[in-house]
Write a structure and sequence with these properties.
six-stranded mixed sheet; 5 helices; alpha/beta
Length: 152
């Protein structure tokens, strides 16, 4: 399955001012809740923060995959951020993060959630893809790269 199914064209964003892990998660919650009015941004933010407390979703190589399952989520949703400046995300390799792929899945879709995570993490372990995303100069280019190359 292509990321086109979960990543809306306006949800690949270039040059986002992340400031901190907390502010980045808050930004993600606001973007996703705008697309699905049944989702409350504060509740979604709290779910993302709660997930981070179990262990950082900073997977290394400047990439983070914050995610959660949420009630009232009708369909899986994603947001991709290319941050203007790398931020501390408590990544496993202790390096700052500048590529953030956030995933929100309906609460009852545990297996689908795990499958998405596995496939996305696998794709982002590709140094070539990460390099291309870092060299992109617009949100449109990011979206094109993500939907052409990444499957989930």
């Amino acid at each position: 399955m292509s990321l086109r199914n979960i990543l809306a064209p306006g949800h690949a964003l270039y040059g986002v001012q992340g400031a901190s892990k907390k502010r980045t998660l808050e930004y993600i919650a606001n973007i996703i809740s705008q697309r699905q009015p049944g989702l409350d941004a504060k509740e979604l933010f709290n779910q993302l923060v709660t997930r981070e407390k179990f262990g950082s979703t900073g997977l290394g190589n400047g990439f983070a995959l914050p995610h959660c399952r949420v009630a009232n989520c009708e369909e899986p949703q994603a947001v991709f951020l290319r941050l203007a400046k790398p931020i501390d995300f408590d990544a496993i390799d202790k390096k700052p993060v500048d590529l953030v792929f956030a995933l929100v899945v309906p609460e009852h879709e545990t297996e689908r959630h795990l499958d998405f995570l596995r496939q996305i993490a696998e794709q982002f372990s590709n140094d070539s893809l990460c390099e291309q995303l870092r060299e992109a100069d617009s949100s449109e280019t990011l979206y094109r790269l993500l939907t052409a190359k990444v499957t989930a």
